[in-house]
Specification:
single chain, Cytidine Deaminase, domain 2, 13 strands, 2 domains, 266 residues, alpha/beta, 9 helices, Rossmann fold
């Protein structure tokens, strides 16, 4: 008899990977897809309900009707959505009003708490994702040079400080100087800003925040990350082993090798 699990699906391919892996492990996946964000391919992977952004009440209603007691939140839902002209439902407005801040972790914890009051538990977002999590060590032919290792350590220290304020997961550095810090604009935009300022040789460090709730907002990299780095002149990508998702890993590493970009999990 199959188990049943809910999936709140954001953008990128991570929700698709989760649905495939969960089904392989005997789960019946019920997905809530978000118009304008979730890939339509999710309909091939799971029983799918479409909602508009900001319809938190519908998530509760659907999961309760489907008798969902466990759910995962996978894929990106940009924080900038709170500044859009979308119509938020009553539950979503209450969540925004009660949130300690409108940073990512605070808002998503509010969603988790709301689901919990209705008997729905959000699980660790890494569940069923072992195959796409970064493993410690260098993944590319190019390894980090001594000065780049120093920049990686510097970037880690910067993220440990700013992460405690629930500010982005990425920093772009060069010669132990901060070129860009990811905020609401996202990793790719931060890479573009920082790497261009560095005029080549920039190092990108991407990690979870200190004490991050691993039920949501896992760091994700992939082919697009490498492409943006190549276009902008960044040469090293340092990610966190065991907590960072690498989408389409083989192709991502291949593209990095072609561009002489180093990817290392720390």
């Amino acid at each position: 008899m199959s188990k049943k699990i809910g999936l709140i699906a954001g953008s990128d391919r991570l929700p698709l990977v989760f649905a495939e892996e969960a089904k392989r492990c005997g789960e019946e996946v019920v997905s809530i897809a978000i118009e304008g964000y979730t890939s339509p391919e999710i309909e091939d992977k799971a029983k799918t309900y479409w909602i508009k952004p900001g319809e938190l009440g519908k998530i509760v209603e659907i999961f309760r009707a489907e008798k969902i007691e466990r759910a995962a939140m996978e894929g990106k839902i940009p924080q900038s959505i709170i500044f859009s002209d979308l119509e938020f439902d009553h539950r979503a407005k209450l969540l925004l009003d009660k949130a300690k801040s409108r940073q990512t972790q605070s808002l998503l914890k509010g969603v988790a708490d709301e689901l919990k009051t209705h008997g729905i538990t959000l699980i660790d977002a890494r569940t069923y994702l072992d195959s796409v999590l970064a493993v410690k060590g260098s993944m590319t032919k190019r390894k980090p040079r001594e000065e780049e290792l120093a920049d990686i350590e510097f970037g880690k220290n910067v993220l440990n400080v700013i992460g405690s304020f629930d500010i982005g997961q990425s920093v772009v550095v060069k010669n132990r100087a901060v070129l860009a810090i990811e905020a609401i604009e996202g990793t790719d935009a931060a890479i573009r800003r920082g790497a261009v300022l560095g005029k080549g040789g920039a190092v990108v460090v991407k990690m979870t925040k200190p004490g991050q709730d691993l039920r949501f907002d896992l760091p994700v990299v992939g082919e697009k990350t490498v492409a943006v780095m190549g276009e902008s002149g960044a040469e090293v990508l340092a990610i966190e082993a065991g907590k960072t998702v690498i989408l389409e890993k083989d192709e991502t590493v291949k593209k990095a090798d072609e561009a002489n970009i180093c990817i290392v999990a720390i």
